[in-house]
Amino acid sequence: MFNSVSRCNVNIIRVIELVDSMALPGVHRDRGELRIHESLDELSTDLADYIADLSEASVKERGVFAIALSGGSLIGLMGKLCEAPYIKTVDWAKWYIFWADERVVAKNHADSNYKLAKDGLLSKVFTLTSYFLPCCPSSASCNLSTFPICVPIVPSHVHSINDSVSAEEAADEYGFVIRQLVKTRMVSVSDISDCPKFDLILLGMGSDGHVASLFPNHSVLEEKEEWVTFITDSPKPPPERITFTLPVINSASNVAVVVTGESKAEAVHLAIDDVGPDSPSLPSRMVQPTKGKLVWFLDKPAASKLKSLQFSE
Ligand SMILES: O=C(O)[C@H](O)[C@@H](O)[C@H](O)[C@H](O)COP(=O)(O)O
């Protein structure tokens, strides 16, 4: 079940198809693929590779790539996408960008997940125009074989929430926007429900096991109808947030949970290992894509309490 692989100079320990043999009746508890890294640098490289590969496959298949981001340390760990080779090779113009969760604050507020992604990622790709100007088709010096991509992220493809309305209204509006994009298939649709099927949803996880803004023991975990909902009592500040619901997360083609640091080790264990019938209803454990693929990006401290793992280095 366990094997070591080396990929793009990154040494990772990968556990393929870790299936919980103690699954509850009717519940398929496939905990996905584990990629456990020696260092944050290796994890970042593997994460950039993974995102770039999914982007390429999705653009080839559907002409677009619909990706949802979260907040927290994830954005910093995605930073290598703004470096060579990805900055040049990723087809940024085909990206449609969403947020799996957002804090209900102004877009220029330090707590805004949009601001975090804009400053840490998007602004670096927005400036591609000037970066690539000398090679664009209109330029005599254009060399498309060396620089196939000349177009940056399209601002109208960046779907952040309306920051001038209440949490409830922002969630409603965001759900409506996604519905329009599902109609035109910029976002695909699940073939077993009417849910959107994002090409990739990227999640972080808190030490309490929350993902997106789905917190343990919160009624938001029961939401089955809405695609996007809101909370006003987040245990992690700020209190007002909007979030994708579990049905949307579990309808995605790909879900990646990126978790680092020893403070998350217990939650990683509870989210992934077979902990028997007393398994707490951890939001991260409820991430179980129905038909999509789940991948965990962990560093060794975060993976240190995993019982199901035998390191085979
Ligand atoms: O907006 C948020 O608060 C996030 O989307 C949240 O779900 C985050 O991903 C986790 O809290 C992990 O954050 P860290 O990686 O910073 O611990």
From TrEMBL:
Protein name: Probable 6-phosphogluconolactonase
Source domain of life: Eukaryota
EC number(s) given by UniProt: 3.1.1.31
Start and end residues of each Glucosamine/galactosamine-6-phosphate isomerase domain: 40-296
Pathway: Carbohydrate degradation; pentose phosphate pathway
Record field: catalytic activity: 6-phospho-D-glucono-1,5-lactone + H2O = 6-phospho-D-gluconate + H(+)
Gene3D superfamilies: 3.40.50.1360
Organism (species): Xanthoceras sorbifolium
InterPro entries per record: 6-phosphogluconolactonase_DevB, 6PGL, Glc/Gal-6P_isomerase, NagB/RpiA_transferase-like
Record lineage: Eukaryota, Viridiplantae, Streptophyta, Embryophyta, Tracheophyta
SUPFAM superfamilies, per the entry: NagB/RpiA/CoA transferase-like
PANTHER family linked to this entry: 6-PHOSPHOGLUCONOLACTONASE, 6-PHOSPHOGLUCONOLACTONASE 1-RELATED
Family the entry assigns: Belongs to the glucosamine/galactosamine-6-phosphate isomerase family. 6-phosphogluconolactonase subfamily.
Enzyme type, top EC level: hydrolase
Annotated NCBIfam families: pgl
